Amino acid sequence: MFPLLKLIRANAASMSGATQQTELAARDALTGRRNGVRAFLPFVGPAVIASVGYMDPGNFATNIQAGSSTGYQLLWVVVLANIVAMLFQAMSAKLGIVTGSNLAELCREQFPKPVVMVMWYGAELAAMATDIAEFLGGALGVSLLFHVSLLCGMAVTGVVTMAILLFDRGGFRPLELIIATLVAVIGLSYVCELFIAPPDWHAALIGSILPRLHGNNDITLAVGIIGATIMPHTLFLHSGLTQNRTPARNDEERRRLLWFSNREVLIALGIAGFVNLAMVMMSASVLPRSASGISDISVAYHALVPLLGIGAATVFLISLMASGMSSSVVGTMAGQVIMQGFVKFEIPVWTRRIFTMAPAFVIGMHFNTVDAMVISQVALSFFLPVPLVALVVLSSRRSVMGKFVAGKSTVIVAGLATILIVLLNVDLLKQALF
């Protein structure tokens, strides 16, 4: 294993030329020497990496349960959550581009120290909860696809994610390309699934535009979908990915960077939204309907085999495996940004990878895997208001953003979205306690 990692490390270093070429192409685009698609492509990367957090195994668990429990009824929650995600990811990217600092660094600079420490603890716990869902999902995909134990699946997932992380030594571009490839695998998998099992498009359309919540179970699932879709760690990470990727030399270049960034967010998160909608539609059209739904991914896989055939079930597992491995990599990257930003402390990436894998190994060996994944997504939604509020506050401060301060309409919409998420979380907490 270790000779393999050394070989990957050496190859990653040799791929630094891809990063240098991207930097030169980006500079040409900012100065007007590249136009059209050729000007846009060098800036594709940060939102693609962030979008992985919106297609992680936690989404698989909550979306499958939503579809098999309520059919197409909660598609509107997926649409709404994805629109809100686009808004906040664009705000996060803008923060990094305009200030040259990431969200965690700005929180440390702008907020009182006791508040910063609470935010750091919460962000670290959220990143760890995220990694549990991501790592276990990837391991479950490996286990079911290759008919090995979950422990073996976790070991394979750990080695693969560590190997992918080593490509960061070649600069940002090699890692972006690997993540983009895994995103393409997930997206194409669900295109195939929709061809194999066509949904009821009329019911899907109604479910996507007509808000409906019937009973406590729907509210719990809705909060779980929001927690699985809008990810706290990606809000911290996105600003870190844009802060120094292509430094702007003047305000005109910042405007062009924001133009490219906003369009990348729309495309990357649009693809993530399609994947989430496809998950719900596939489970609604194929899986047996029940009041509590199917929350166990392995049960869903075994149900797909007789209904759609082993080919469709295998495609499902390939997408799950790609999702788990890519999102686990992104979770580790986010953890690095969070720790370095809040407390100016950095540890080797392999140390963080081992530290965040440990809880997943314990839970995977002693608890129900999918229950842990669903609970982790609901838990994430409780921390979610913290980075949302921080983004709204910092984006609206002229002392931070200068002439790029957020407009009133943006602040109002983002504030209302944050309030809605907080209210949903309060309702869920009332259900849990009373």
Q: Can you lay out the helices and strands and say which pair or pack?
A:
Layout: H1 2-14, H2 16-30, H3 37-40, H4 46-51, H5 57-70, H6 75-99, H7 103-110, H8 113-146, H9 150-166, H10 172-196, H11 201-209, H12 215-229, H13 232-242, H14 251-286, H15 297-308, H16 310-343, H17 349-366, H18 369-383, H19 385-395, H20 398-401, H21 408-433
Helix pairs in contact: 1-9, 5-12, 5-14, 5-18, 6-11, 6-12, 6-13, 6-14, 6-19, 7-16, 7-19, 8-9, 8-16, 8-17, 8-18, 9-16, 9-17, 10-14, 10-16, 12-18, 12-21, 13-16, 15-16, 16-17, 19-21
Q: Could you characterize what this model shows?
A:
The chain is mainly α and 434 residues long. The protein has one domain: Amino acid/polyamine transporter I (Up-down Bundle), CATH 1.20.1740. The protein is 81% helix and 0% strand. The longest helix has 36 residues, at 251-286.
Apparent shape: globular
Q: Rg, please?
A: 21 Å
Subunit organisation of the chains: single chain
Order of helices and strands: HHHHHHHHHHHHHHHHHHHHH
Number of domains: 1
The helix tally amounts to: 21
Characterize the biggest β-sheet.
none
What is the CATH third-level topology name? Amino acid/polyamine transporter I
Mean pLDDT: 84
Poorly predicted sequence stretches spanning 5 or more consecutive residues: none
Question: How helix-rich are the residues, as a percent range?
Answer: over 70%
Tell me which CATH architecture applies here. Up-down Bundle
Give the full name of the CATH homologous superfamily: Amino acid/polyamine transporter I
